[in-house]
Specification:
about 75% helix; 7 helices; Rna Polymerase Sigma Factor, Chain: A; elongated; about 0% strand; mainly alpha; Arc Repressor Mutant, subunit A
Length: about 150
């Protein structure tokens, strides 16, 4: 389970934190486990997947604020502003769509990898990403028009 969380979150510390949350939740909700619906391992892995997605949704991109040597400070400031602008748009999207865009563009995952990691059908991932991109475009055009 830890290996799965590290692969999904790409941060061992975050994976360990999420794993601890999962085990605590399993302990608290143990009485609700129904063996007729699946194995205990599957039940706990479902919780792990859900908590990993929650963690990814909460992540806010942290643009680098360092100025690379030889870079124009104005260009770096404009780039930083644009990253924060995009982060603000992502926060206005439905959580599931924002999480998909973060996995695709921040983590660099393919749509197939996202589908595998989240247990979402590939067609659904593609549809949600298209919807999210359209919403982002509308928000950006609306802001530019204002």
């Amino acid at each position: 389970m830890l290996g799965y969380l590290v692969a999904v979150l790409r941060d061992r510390g975050a994976a360990e934190d999420v794993l601890q949350e999962v085990f605590a939740e399993a302990w608290r909700r143990g009485r609700s486990y129904d063996p007729s619906r699946g194995t205990a391992e599957a039940w706990i892995m479902t919780m792990a997947k859900s908590r990993a997605i929650d963690h990814l949704r909460k992540r806010v991109p942290e643009p680098s604020e360092t100025v690379p040597e030889g870079e124009d400070l104005t260009t770096v400031a404009d780039d930083l502003h644009e990253r924060w602008r995009v982060a603000a748009f992502l926060d206005r999207l439905p959580a599931d769509e924002a999480a998909l865009l973060r996995m695709r563009f921040q983590a660099g995952w393919s749509q197939s990898k996202i589908a595998d990691a989240t247990g979402t059908p590939l067609g659904t991932v593609k549809m949600r990403m298209a919807s999210a991109m359209k919403s982002m475009r509308v928000m950006m055009l609306s802001e530019e028009a204002a």
